[in-house]
């Protein structure tokens, strides 16, 4: 399926659903990571399938345009939310049970979409799940200083990511680019935030969770030891299996509490 944009541009959407799922099912909108420049990996598709099967929901993986500076990726993702909500009946989705999930840079996008939907009074988002999220372009946390040149993902790579993403913004950091730049986090949907011990993004993820909690947003923060950015692609690992089970239980509980059409 495709989300139409201006002109001839389109954003692809991959929808996963478990066998036998009925109409008015909950939906998880998935914004993948990749520093805003990489597309969905094979592991992303495996995770989407795992969520669909274990939670009993439809998963809409939004293939937002990559390699573009802010605000294009955010607007692609917001249009994805609008497309899912606007086509809920045709897609067999309960409009009152739409959640968003994002990992790493996708976490920044998911967090931005919750803020944007709140501010624009857009489609309702019932829940947000942020996995090792990018949240703060200032990069002043201790974990950013601790993991300057760590393997896989580190502060040097993170700084380059921000330089590319904000290159057309005249040195400014728009609030929907960096979630921590928002003047208020009040009124956002409940959240589950997972941060990883060996990750330069660890402390800013914790800080975003703490700030949401202080401003009245129900938050569950899960700080996982011995893990690194992208660890969940190793889906045969016991710790990864436990982490995925926890995420799915949280999502299943949230969707169940709302009930179909509640």
Unreliable spans are none
Number of strands: 8
The total of helices stands at 8
Percent helix range = 25-40%
Classify the beta-strand content into a percent band.
Answer: 15-25%
- Tell me about the largest β-sheet: 8 strands, mixed
Q: SS-based structural class?
A: alpha/beta
Task: Offer a few descriptive terms.
alpha/beta, eight-stranded mixed beta sheet, 8 helices, 8 strands
Concise account of the structure shown:
This protein has helices at 42-56, 72-86, 88-91, 105-120, 142-146, 155-165, 202-214, 238-258; strands at 2-4, 10-16, 25-31, 58-62, 93-103, 127-131, 191-198, 219-228.
Can you characterise this structure?
With 262 residues, the chain is of the alpha/beta class. The chain is built from 8 helices and 8 strands. The chain has an 8-stranded mixed beta sheet with strand order 1-2-4-3-5-6-7-8, sandwiched between helices. Helix 1 (42-56) crosses helix 8 (238-258) and helix 2 crosses helix 4 (105-120). The two termini are 28 Å apart.
Write the layout of secondary structure elements.
Elements: E1 2-4, E2 10-16, E3 25-31, H1 42-56, E4 58-62, H2 72-86, H3 88-91, E5 93-103, H4 105-120, E6 127-131, H5 142-146, H6 155-165, E7 191-198, H7 202-214, E8 219-228, H8 238-258
Parallel strand pairs: 3-4, 3-5, 5-6, 6-7, 7-8
Antiparallel strand pairs: 1-2, 2-4
Helix pairs in contact: 1-8, 2-4
